[in-house]
Design a protein that fits this description.
This protein has 11 helices and 9 strands. The protein is α+β, with helices and mostly antiparallel strands and 339 residues long. It has 2 domains: 147 residues, FdhE-like fold, CATH 3.90.1670.10; 150 residues, FdhE-like fold (Alpha-Beta Complex), CATH 3.90.1670. The longest helix is centred in the middle third of the chain and has 22 residues.
Length: 339
């Protein structure tokens, strides 16, 4: 049976925060050529011998389709220099998920991806993929609106992961394209810090998880991984990702099923839940310094048991994984604002 273990915070938060704030580069933007390919590779590694192996294998196929869509994404409107300057001045993300006017190109990416993964999908999901490959644009926009605003009621939960995957491709393309376009005169970079440190500085979305980096340049530094555009932004360790408190933090991990204390001796968990008693929230933290192959979305999908066990303590998750959602899926009465 899975067991949950807890490790209390031991380090001095103020000292660590000051040291890391001076050392860390704030942003790590997604790499167009590899972002989803790396996720697919990690998902296949995690699928081997996993109780959810078939699911993880399919998500790897979906990530491969995302990578192909990103590499072939067409030219779409981007924020101009004035918009980038205004966002910087107001401390807001330049590609705000709540207000950005989506280009229909994301819909075509969705239809193509659905058709590509259809032959490799589980039998139970093929009808959904067939429908998505020919889906009406207005319906897709309604579903995207609900998904991006966290409205579970009326969201087609079977179609949501594929819709989310296409939106991830679209926003990742936007971030890459804005970066390739460059910053206007008077602005050091198109993206930078915003007023709310708990959401993505590029699109304003919540994180899926945080990751402690490995390597010489960023080793030991913690970044949050955007659930939509895959941007990483720095947040000092030993700090709640929801309320930013440095008090009341603890770390939970699940011991592998059947493992003994002797088996786990000396092994530090690769994935933990960072919990905060001050605000009652948690977010997973993935340790790249313990396994250099980690990928936040893949690790999150493969550690659902940890979410279930932490949720039993009454804590709420701060982040979101758009590829794995829970909620009410029954269609409500028509919403005039959605029409």
């Amino acid at each position: 049976m899975d067991k949950i273990t807890s490790t209390a915070r031991l380090m001095d938060a103020e000292e660590l925060a000051q040291r890391q704030a001076s050392e860390a580069s704030f942003l790590q933007l997604p790499a167009r050529g590899t972002v989803f390919a790396e996720r697919a590779m990690r998902l296949r590694q995690l699928a081997s011998g996993h109780a959810m192996g078939d699911f993880l294998q399919f998500m790897a196929e979906l990530a491969d389709a995302q990578q192909r869509a990103l590499l072939g994404f067409p030219v779409v409107p981007l924020p101009d220099g004035e918009a980038l300057m205004n966002a910087s001045r107001l401390g807001m993300p330049p590609l705000p998920v709540a207000h950005w006017q989506r280009d229909p190109a994301w819909q075509q990416a969705l239809r193509t991806m659905a058709a590509e993964v259809l032959p490799k999908a589980p039998e139970a999901g093929r009808e959904v993929l067939q429908d998505l490959a020919q889906a009406d644009g207005d319906w897709l926009e309604q579903q995207a609106e609900r998904l991006l605003h966290g409205v579970m009621q009326g969201l087609d939960m079977a179609a949501a992961p594929i819709i989310a995957a296409a939106l991830q491709v679209y926003w990742t393309h936007l971030v890459c394209a804005v970066q390739e376009q460059g910053a206007p005169a008077g602005l050091a970079a198109p993206f930078g810090r915003i007023d709310d440190a708990t959401v993505c500085p590029c699109c304003g979305s919540r994180p899926t998880a945080s990751i402690v980096k490995a390597g010489a340049e960023r080793g030991g530094q913690r970044y949050l991984h955007c659930s939509l555009c895959s941007t990483h932004w720095h947040m000092v360790r030993i700090k709640c990702t929801h309320c930013e408190s440095t008090k009341g933090l603890a770390y939970e991990a699940v011991a592998p099923a059947g493992a003994t204390e002797e088996d786990n001796q000396g092994r530090e968990p690769v994935v933990q839940a960072e919990t905060c008693s001050e605000c009652g929230h948690y977010l997973k933290i993935v340790h790249g310094e313990r396994d250099p192959m980690v990928e936040p979305v893949a690790e999150d999908l493969a550690t659902l048991t940890l979410d279930l066990l932490v949720a039993e303590t009454g804590l709420q998750r701060h982040g979101v994984n758009m590829l794995l959602l829970f909620g009410e899926s029954e269609e409500p009465a028509p919403d005039p604002e959605m029409q």
